[in-house]
Known about the structure:
By secondary structure, the protein is of the alpha+beta class. The protein has a domain at 48-71 and 133-266: Aminopeptidase, CATH 3.40.630.30. 48% of the residues lie in helices and 20% in strands. It is built from 11 helices and 8 strands. It has an 8-stranded mixed sheet with strand order 1-2-3-4-5-6-8-7. Helix 3 packs antiparallel against helix 6, helix 4 packs across helix 6 and helix 5 (83-100) runs antiparallel to helix 6. The longest helix is centred in the middle third of the chain and has 31 residues, at 104-134. It binds coenzyme A. InterPro entries: GNAT_dom, NAT_camello-type.
Amino acid sequence: MYQQPSLGLTQTNTNGLCDFHSLLCPQHIYTALSGVQTKQSWAMADFHIRKYRDEDEEAVKETFTLGMSEHVPSSFMLVLKQPPTQMVLMCVFCALLTSSKSFLLPILAVTLLLAAVRQAVVYMFKKYIDTCLRIDLKNIGETYLKQKDSCFWVAESDGRVVGTVGCLPAETVPGCLELKRMSVCRSHRRMGIAKALCRTVVDFSCERGCPAVILYTSVVQTDAQKLYENMGFEKMREFVVSELVAKIMNFTLFEYRLDLKREGQRN
Length: 267
Ligand SMILES: CC(C)(COP(=O)(O)OP(=O)(O)OC[C@H]1O[C@@H](n2cnc3c(N)ncnc32)[C@H](O)[C@@H]1OP(=O)(O)O)[C@@H](O)C(=O)NCCC(=O)NCCS
């Protein structure tokens, strides 16, 4: 599969509008220079970033919901890797095996327990997604576009929303902005869209003189961790979510921070 080369993303203007088409599509540059029409044989990163509009609402909610839901299987695996989970499963299996002298009952019981654990993970994600859809994503225009130091953008490709990101003043770190709701459709991954969205938030924060951008991601969002580390964010702290199911899972959240003053000096 073709992987887009890493390129500098510096074309955001003050409206938060970028055109990454020529940057990310070297074959187009080639075509323009040579005047020869070539057939594209690989996935094109033909997209641009623009501010959210009301008609994007459904697409944004869907992109966010799908992006979050895809972490259910890895979260389930995370629970299975926890020693307490393995111990409970083992104890149930051994106790039923000794008492029933048959494999059928313990296997059935362990299967049911695994199904229950999976349901608990699904419940946890569903609850988180519902909360987001009820709070900031309920009225994106109101939450992100009418408030000071807040904004929401989408990545559009072929007239379709394929990526989302927003930012709000960080509740825990006064003066800083928090990057939120980063998600890219599966069909458009590894084309630099998330990097471009992230850069848009960083530029927006720089324009407002914010000292840093912060964000939260979780232990199972490994692609996101790589993305933010690639963009220069540093992991500041990690903590387990206080909810019971999350505690049992040892579901850890990471706080990342990009120091804009340091970044400015570096650039
Ligand atoms: C995380 C996510 C937004 C990345 O989107 P993307 O458009 O594919 O990311 P990009 O193409 O811009 O990649 C940027 C960098 O991130 C890292 N990265 C992203 N996906 C990766 C993967 N599958 N494996 C390894 N590194 C990855 C790489 O460093 C990459 O840079 P490179 O291509 O120069 O190596 C996307 O996978 C997603 O939407 N996930 C589901 C929702 C989610 O978890 N959101 C994060 C909320 S905090």
